[in-house]
Amino acid sequence: MSSIQNDGLFRTIVKTLSPFIPQVEKPKKKITLTNKLIWTGIAMLIYLVMGQVPLFGVNVDPATDPLAFARVIFAAQQRTLLELGIGPIVTAGLLMQLLKGSDILKLNFKDPNDRSLFTSATKIVTIIVIVAETLLYGVSVYGGATPSGYHLTILIAQLTAACIVVMYLDELVQKGWGLGSGISIFIMAGVAQAILWSLFNPIPIPNGVEPSGLIPFMITSGMEGHIGDSLLRSAPPAPVPNMPSIFAFGITGGILLLLVYVQGIHVDIPIVSTRYRGFTATYPIKLLYTSNIPVILASALMANALFIGQMVWINYNPNNDNPAFNLIAQYDAQSQNPTGGIFYYVTAPRSFEATVADPVRAIVYVLFLTTIVTIFGRLWVELGGLSAKSAAKNLLDADVQVPGFRRSESSVESLLNRYIPSVTIIGGVIIGLLASVSDLFSVFGTGIGLLLMVDILVNYYNLLVREQVDVHMPKLASLLGRT
């Protein structure tokens, strides 16, 4: 009885608030692929420009960055309008997906009204998360860098407005004006930008004169007769982390090739249509069955945990003299990077030199990230509607069946159970190992960033294929859409 009342209250609140929240209208007629690509490009261009517009009224040390480890994942740029990137939007979206997958929200997605209700609810939750995160981040990170409460208010207003603009850019793309998802485009652009910056950045390293980018450094060191210095770069008297080197570039290329190969591994289950006689196809179960969701979940969890840990340290243990808190984390006063405690061992060394200097930390990090990604993958299968039971129901609802098996959920579910639990665990271990080991060797764009970029590019390739089929063979595209 209480669940019915809660469902009614949820619907009432969403329907009451929805009229006050602007919506991006769906296109009234079909958008051509060319126009979709143009709108997607415009959204990405606006996002990239926002990442170059500095926040007004703040002045902080760029070496102090609480979100440095999550910048690529959240497509964020420090001290710009994209300070928080897509972080609040991703957090709200994952929260709503978990509520839906766990059946806390009783919604029937076959009903257009319920689909619209879920979309409106997601936007409301996103705005709430944006306001909460901008307030927390603004006060905690920039509170001491603003001369007055008035300036802090302006700062928080900038962060909030920027996040809302990003939310609408994502909605513009998802509503059919663009192609795919705006969030995916922004992540992909952020990772690609990081890789290009690692290769071509001409700006000198901190407290040095040599260029940061690998190509400019190779040119200058070659002219001086020290081209070998670019193999494993370090800057005396202490190594600068994440300096692009030939070694890191080779590891990056190898990881990319390996990711593309692993993305193509799948088990094909034959299916036939019960509506269209003679139509046969395959239902692929990919080795990376849960895609990049477990990586995003694990990254979001670690980002929030480390951020909260830094805030507690700044306020209650800035001198690392609290024995109890030191067990959790100790930080360097200048860079605010972990130097001890649990947080130190669950964050990546992020350089070959640091890995060699502390191999125990590297091993613990690899084991931790692999374990947590695998656990999140298993949970997401159950809560995200990817279980064998859900997949069997979706196949039958699409009017297809597996040859040789009765047309019943239990029969198809038993077949899918042979594969889905196994690929979930194996895929989680592979993703965790690739991401963690990549981070140890300072790959361009970070290991998790490369995972996300490759997955997004594969998905966009599939989207472009479907768009081409839709243009040239609309009846076949309609049928494929049902299966």
From TrEMBL:
Residues 45-78 form the Translocon Sec61/SecY plug domain. Keywords: Membrane, Protein transport, Translocation, Transmembrane, Transmembrane helix, Transport. It comes from the Archaea. GO terms for cellular component: endomembrane system; membrane. It is found in: Endomembrane system; Membrane. Pfam families: Plug_translocon, SecY. PANTHER family: SECY/SEC61-ALPHA FAMILY MEMBER. The central subunit of the protein translocation channel SecYEG. Consists of two halves formed by TMs 1-5 and 6-10. These two domains form a lateral gate at the front which open onto the bilayer between TMs 2 and 7, and are clamped together by SecE at the back. The channel is closed by both a pore ring composed of hydrophobic SecY resides and a short helix (helix 2A) on the extracellular side of the membrane which forms a plug. The plug probably moves laterally to allow the channel to open. The ring and the pore may move independently. This is Protein translocase subunit SecY. The lineage of its organism: Archaea, Nitrososphaerota, Nitrososphaeria, Nitrososphaerales, Nitrososphaeraceae.
